[in-house]
Amino acid sequence: MSARKQQLLKRHRKNKRIALLIALISLLLIGVLVSWWLVPLLLVLGWIAHEAWFADHLFYRPQDDYRYEFPADAMHYPVLIEGGRLVLPGDFQPADTLVLEVQLQASWLGRWLDPQVWIDADRQDFERGVAGRRYLNLSGQHELLCQGALRIRGRFCRLPSDATLHAMRNPDYAERRLLIIAPHADDAELAAFGLYSRARDVMIVTLTQGEIEAEGYRRLGLDPAAAARLKGRLRAWDSLAVPLWGGVPQARCVQLGYYCLQLPAMAEEPGRAFASRESGELDIRNVRQHNPLSLPADTDGLPSWRNLQADLRALLEHFRPEVVVTPHPELDPHADHVAATRALYQAIEEGEWMPEALLLYANHLHDNDRWPMGPAEGGVALPPAIEALPADRLWSPTLGAEARLNKALALGMQHDLQGPLPLKKRLRRLIQAVLVGRRWPRTGDDEFFRKAVRRHELFWVREL
Predict the structure, then answer these.
(1) 235 with 419: CB under 8 angstroms?
(2) In sequence order, what are the residues at sequence separation of 6 or more whose Cβ sits closer than 8 angstroms to the Cβ of residue 28?
(3) Beta strand pairing status for 201-208 and 253-258?
(4) Per-residue b/e over 255-292, b at no fewer than 16 CB within 10 Å?
């Protein structure tokens, strides 16, 4: 977890402790001054209200503006929203990726129910109580847009009459030679299943075994180390087998076998080997036997930064990708994700092969654990950017109904996304379904089935 994410969590927990203290003092006063029987009733009602309206991890104010800058080659058009339709200027030129900048204002109901913007049949949700600059994703809607038939309306929020449309043009990167960097099994599917399932030439490289947090496997009678080893084997197998569902054979998948949450420490001490935190293993070769090519770290099997660098340089030289898909180093705060892209940058700088561009993705966020907000099957609005990001070009390919179903089924094959929800989360979902109207997909209980199975995938294009 990044330092900024830790700081935000610390502040969030501090504020919750203060609010809890105030609530307990208030309950105590009510019990003394009014009646003790009200205390347990108010405790239950307060817990229900918390689960319905205050349980989201939102580390910024809904009134904060998102701060985006776009590259010099982006086109910007002032547009109008008239009669529920988007009206374009006469000089509009179609582009593959369209982002509508609007000033959203939640209605009174939008403080308690999720504000939604409907773009024809697409729904994109925002924070309750939103009152600031937001960015809608109109990619895939250019035909209706050019016809003047694209309907747009807010529910539990108000749209302004004027807005700005940002248009960006990209090649179809599915036609390029792609290398996908996945810090863990399932990262490639979450971020880019739609992309890689139609790519003509792609290789998927998974950096870690994914062996930590294996408590669920102890039900099989295993001690903690054995449970972690089993989970690592299963997730390593997932990284090689699941991409076949998207048309990528095992011979195009590589598992490097490094250990979860050890990549940042490896980067700080490049010559030192870092064993698994939970399995205790110090040899990464146990999950590399099915790789389609020999790699430098196969010699000694040591989980060190130097070996990771040597592996990545060898893979770049062997596959010679035109484009590499990797986590966004400023937007995605997961420590392994940040370290994975750091490792890639270093391997490119020190190696002999230079890709043309990076496609950056974010499976996690600093500021908002619910993004993309709203139910599955909706579009992907731009994520919170409370601190300005580099002005990268955006590319947002669309996924049809069949691709979305295949993506959901691919996620269902991942062992790490199969576990049952804890009772607390089940109760929270029930309360939110009744009081807030939220819905979750039938394809799986894990939150990623809601967040990742969408009409869009979203990448930031960084030229090298």
Answers:
(1) no
(2) none
(3) parallel
(4) bbbbbbbbbbebbeeeeebbebebbebeebeebbeebe
Give the predicted TM-score (pTM) of the model: 0.93
The whole-angstrom separation of Cα 137 and Cα 275 is 43
The answer to whether residues 62 and 131 touch, using CB atoms and an 8 Å cutoff, is: yes
Residues 6+ apart with CB under 8 A from 378: 122, 123, 124, 125, 372, 454, 455
Segment 337-380, tens digit of pLDDT: 999 999 999 999 999 999 999 999 999 998 898 999 999 999 99
* Element holding 412 (H helix, E strand): helix 401-412
How does pLDDT run across 284-328, given as a tens digit for each residue? 999 999 999 999 999 999 999 999 999 999 999 999 999 999 999
- What DSSP assignment string belongs to 353-401? ---SEEEEE-SS-SSBTTPSPS-TTS--PPPP-SSPPP-PEEE--B--H
Measured CA to CA, the distance from residue 213 to residue 273 in angstroms comes to: 21
Residue 460 and residue 328 in contact, taking contact as beta carbons nearer than 8 Å: yes
Q: Are 194 and 248 in contact (CB under 8 A)?
A: no
Count H helices and E strands in the chain, helices first: 11, 16
Please list the residues that pair with 459 across neighbouring strands. 395
> Which residues, other chains included, contact 331 with Cβ-Cβ below 8 Å and sequence gap of 6+?
360, 362, 365, 366, 383, 385, 389, 460
Q: Quote the radius of gyration of the chain (alpha carbons, Å).
A: 24
121: CB partners within 8 A, 6+ apart: none
Task: Please check the confidence at residue 27 and state whether its pLDDT lies above 70.
Answer: no
The answer to whether residues 371 and 388 touch, using CB atoms and an 8 Å cutoff, is no
Q: 226 is written with which tokens?
A: 């054995």
- The rounded distance, in Å, linking the Cα atoms of 367 and 212 is 24
79's tokens: 């547009």
CA-closest candidate to residue 255, choices 214, 189, 311, 310: 311
Determine the Cα–Cα distance for residues 113 and 126; give it in Å rounded to an integer. Answer: 10
